[in-house]
Specification:
With 352 residues, the chain is α/β, with parallel strands linked by helices. The chain is built from twelve helices and ten strands. The structure holds 5'-O-[(R)-(carboxyoxy)(hydroxy)phosphoryl]adenosine (KG4) and zinc ion.
Length: 352
């Protein structure tokens, strides 16, 4: 099963050709972060235009590198959402064009589910289920119970900012460049995580939900009060923020491990590249940790092609040339994952 996957949900244009859901034959990615850096975050209109320019070149590189001819493909897969509407539409239009030109079926893929598939596609053997799924990205923070791949119960999500978004905004307050996650991780290595006692919020409705907005504001006020920021203070602020943000995740992982019988933890999303978090989670959990490779943590076409390959093999994909984009509202992961276009996904929100 050979699938060409296209990803354009945010600021990475990426195309890959993947065999049987896992084997990456070619994978190319063009990041726009340098173009967005001057705005301190993603500028949506610019993002759509950059995708439009990057996709044809990426497609050509993939065919040349993999030596796959369009006729050999079994399907074209594309991110249907969630993401920026304009960026999603550029990707879907492009994928429709490729599908029409090649006569191959077109499969719409849920970007969040693909982040979890990225963890699975990096393993030789399937992880033990039930599993705890952690999606930590720029747009989402979600804790899921997974009975199997494709069967989810949403345990917790953010009520305001996503964790990656908090890293990006705090980086701005500290005068660091976009994307904030890698910049904060880098300077935090020199900092003291105990110097400032920051804490993320715990929404009353559900101890497994997250709130990062107050934490972000505390860092901002402290940075203002400590101004002018020396190199040392900036590093201590970054380290203390990073510690508090990941403490919120780790505390919830402990809660889930105490009350749900799960046999492994699957992690996905750009924030999962963070080495400090990887080390902490390994220290604090006795369960097998299923991480994607760093390249497959960020937004990428390989996870889109991979998940489509899995769905095609399981005969649960519903190909259609007339795909719509589903940008959805931030934070409302339940609505998006239970969308009828995702037949594999069952979400029941459990408020404790
Ligand atoms: O999954 P992703 O590539 O895009 C979305 O689907 O949102 O995640 C991007 C997010 C950004 O907010 C970025 O700052 C964050 O991932 N990120 C990190 C690290 N690398 C990227 N956050 C913390 N530590 C990192 N090393
Ligand atoms: Zn993503």
């Amino acid at each position: 099963m050979l699938i060409l996957g296209i990803e354009t949900s945010c600021d990475e244009s990426s195309i890959a050709i993947v065999r049987d859901g896992r084997e990456i034959l070619s994978h190319h990615l063009s990041s726009q972060s340098a173009q967005h850096a001057q705005y301190g975050g993603v500028f949506p209109e610019l993002s759509s235009r950059e995708h439009l320019q990057a996709l044809p070149l990426l497609l050509k590189k993939c065919f040349i590198e993999s030596e796959v001819s369009p006729a050999d493909l079994d399907a074209i897969a594309v991110t249907q959402g969630p993401g920026l509407i304009g960026s999603l539409l550029v990707g879907i239009d492009f994928a429709q064009g490729v599908a029409l030109a090649t006569g191959k079926p077109l499969v719409g893929i849920n970007h969040l589910e693909a982040h979890l598939w990225a963890a699975i596609m990096c393993q030789k053997i399937p992880p033990p289920f039930p599993a705890l799924g952690l999606i930590l990205s720029g747009g989402h923070t979600a804790l899921l119970r997974m009975e199997a791949f494709g069967e989810y119960t949403l345990l917790g999500t953010t009520v305001d900012d996503a964790i990656g978004e908090a890293f990006d905004k705090v980086a701005q307050h500290l005068g660091l460049s976009y994307p904030g996650g890698p910049a904060i991780e880098k300077i935090a290595q020199e900092g003291d995580p105990t110097r400032y006692s920051f804490k993320a919020g715990t929404p009353k409705a559900n101890p497994l939900h997250f709130s990062f907005s107050g934490l972000k504001t505390s860092v901002r006020y402290t940075a203002e009060a400590e101004s002018p920021l020396t190199k040392e203070k900036r590093a201590d602020l970054a380290a203390s923020f990073q510690e508090a943000a990941f403490r919120a995740i780790l505390d919830r992982v402990h809660l889930v491990m105490a009350r749900e019988e799960v046999s492994s933890i699957l992690i996905g999303g750009g924030v999962a590249q963070n080495h400090y978090f990887r080390k902490k989670l390994a220290q604090e959990s006795s369960l097998p940790l299923i991480w994607p490779s760093p390249t497959l943590c960020q937004d990428n076409g390989a996870m889109i092609a991979g998940l489509a390959g899995y769905q095609m093999a399981q005969q649960i994909a519903s190909p259609s040339l007339g795909l719509q984009a589903y940008p959805r509202l931030r934070g409302d992961i339940t609505e998006w994952m239970s969308h009828p276009s995702h037949k594999t996904t069952q979400v029941i929100e459990r408020i404790s």
